[in-house]
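Let's practice the habit of predicting before peeking. Look at the sequence and jot down your guess about where helices and strands might fall. Then scroll down.
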Amino acid sequence: MAHFIKAHYHPFLFALMTLSAMAELGLTAFLISAGNENGTWPSPRYHALLILFLFNAVWTVAFSTAYMLWIVDGAVHLLASIASSVIWLLISSVLWGTAAGIMHNTRSGGNCARVPPISRCRQSLTVEALGWTEFGLCLITMVRCIRLPASRFPFE
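Done guessing? Here is the structure:
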């Protein structure tokens, strides 16, 4: 328990990243499966983009869970270092920001105002929203990880 208290609150940011990526993983896996089953893709680009989102979600679930557990456990090996988590967060930020930005220009349907609550338009909008959420969480967590060493040694 002492390691958990010492870790401050950035393990919770990694936990939020994990949970958000799990939601993205489920939604994109469903959309890819449904699209493959019905053969209804708005464009090949949209299909490839969903696969990118699926990759990002798996990547984020695997690594953010590992970092969260290493932080809480107090691991001191190379992969559990602040530098490695900042590098991973930088790569993840690029992946999520790129995917969400391209999705914004690729998905059709605008703001989905006159479509049923359960529709491809709203599902695509949710994929994009979760992508932007992951992008923001990556940036916030990266800033927190960079500021962590400085917060351990405050100026007196």
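How did you do? Confidence is low (pLDDT under 50) at residues 1-5.
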